[in-house]
Amino acid sequence: MLLVDKEPLVRKKLLASIHSPQDLRGLDPADLEDLAAELRETIISTVAQTGGHLAPSLGVVELTLALHYVFDTPKDKLIWDVGHQAYAHKLLTGRREQFHTLRQHGGLSGFPKRAESEYDTIETGHSSTSISFGLGLAAAKRIRKKPGKVVAVIGDGSMTAGLAFEGLNHAGDLDEDLIVILNDNEMSISENVGALSSFMSRKLTGKTIRRLRDHIEERLLALSTVGENILNLLRKSEESMKAFFTPGMLFEAFKFKYVGPIPGHELEDLIATLSNVRDHNHGPVLVHVITTKGKGYVHAERNPGSYHGVGPFDIASGKAKPSRPAPPSYTKIFGETLCRIASEDARVVGITAAMPDGTGLSSFCTSHCHRFFDVGIAEQHGLTFAAGLALEGMRPCFAVYSSFMQRALDQLIHDVCLPNLPVTIALDRSGVVGADGPTHHGVFDLAFLRSVPNLTIMMPKDENELRHMLYTALNLGSPAVLRYPRGSGEGVALDEDLHILPPGTAELLREGTDILLIPAGNRVYPALHAAELLAEQGISAAVINPRFLKPLDASLICTWACKTGAVLTVEDGTALGGFGSAVLQLLQEHEIYVPVKTLGYGDAFIDQGPQQVLWQEAGLDSAGIVGSAVSLLRKKVG
What we know:
This protein is of the alpha/beta class. Mean pLDDT is 89; it is low at 195-208 and 240-245.
């Protein structure tokens, strides 16, 4: 195992004897260091095979041990904000033997999940929710006179979101018995940005303060009795000084008792501090803990952003395991195309919510740094900020994951679409996304977007069409959403010139007489293959690429619905209120009454699994489309 000090990771094997935190509390404190080392070894070796959130979980190993050692979980409630740092938590709470199935189809979730364990207080996958969750739990415990503490662990990156401050503000007002652990590693997914991040910088709160305190103590003790008297006086006023020189000033303003900063990898300090905080019987407390993201694995420590979420990798080199060559991802093509358009149009601005790498905007940040903005984990602000830019004549493009866009629906409606401002939303990771599971699947966007007035919605069938759609969106002069999936494109050739697609124009890809297939976005190519398979059975299928969900091409769709007499829609999204529902409504409005079947996901959350498997299970692959088409045609004949 490669560590910073190059020493063997584990001296004493203890993890196999830990079936619950009760077993952990029976250990001698001196054994916890060995257990921490074994937890790291297990996390690294497992994630090297399964992929996952490596650096966040490595950074909180000691903190996790200390929390379960001090607090009486699950009676005491522990909430992990975001939840991608909960691997050590899973290992200590009875899931060690299943840990090798992490993020696999049918295996353990990569995030807290109540169905897995009573120790998982709530499902988390999006940031900045823990304080509000925790405050609700604390208030309910007081009302119902139930014993137990509530502990919310939140990262400094998550503190850039407004929801966290709404929770802090309310907690200070209610004065509930809530403990907040601020895990400060100066990182979210990418490096933290913003004034708050600077304020909580380790340069101020960590080694600098401790060195200053140690230096003062050394000098004063050299003065004998007089120095000791002065030192005792200073110690009595330590909290006041700390509040002035550290973020304590901010949290004290929210009426929290501030404790820290304390080193996050010193188990003795952590256990002593948390024990004292546990016995604090009234009012909210915030414990500021300084940790190192990726702690214990040299490659993750040196480059924590790259090891935030990883695929399978070689432990010795830290390099990703070789895989079959794949076409460039939609995300990469998007980023390159936005850079090209911005080079030709000085109005174009790129915006991300703490994810320049994940959304493909890193190259834009480099080439157009004066027109690039990282707003932090603040999707609501990001969208209204984009609206302000558009008001002054810019053409902002906000790149965001579909599941994170859910957080900014009000801003889209009220701040962008109501005033009809030219803001483009690049909706990455739409559809199922794979191993991250239900908190990250982007399957609801079509359903919650299509009812919003003034909004154009586009779905490319491949990466070449994505480029033209991005160019179209940035030149519309009105709000637009460009929806595309996670992963590789189709490997098609890219046109040299970009052109505008007239809104509401679909394209007929294949003529047919028996059934009309209308697949949306990344389901177009599977539908074309399905049409070939149907032809082998003597069934003639027409295929339309709608390109636009809103507005739909009423003329083309209605014409071919009448010609074929049966319609099958396919979408990588929920069938409730999504693309298929829009087609059904269109046909009803034009009084076209033919058999229609809509393929999409049902009324349930979707667990983690490879995209191909999830498409197959939902009947959205070529074989599933063929089966549904044959079934629909039986109804047509009947």
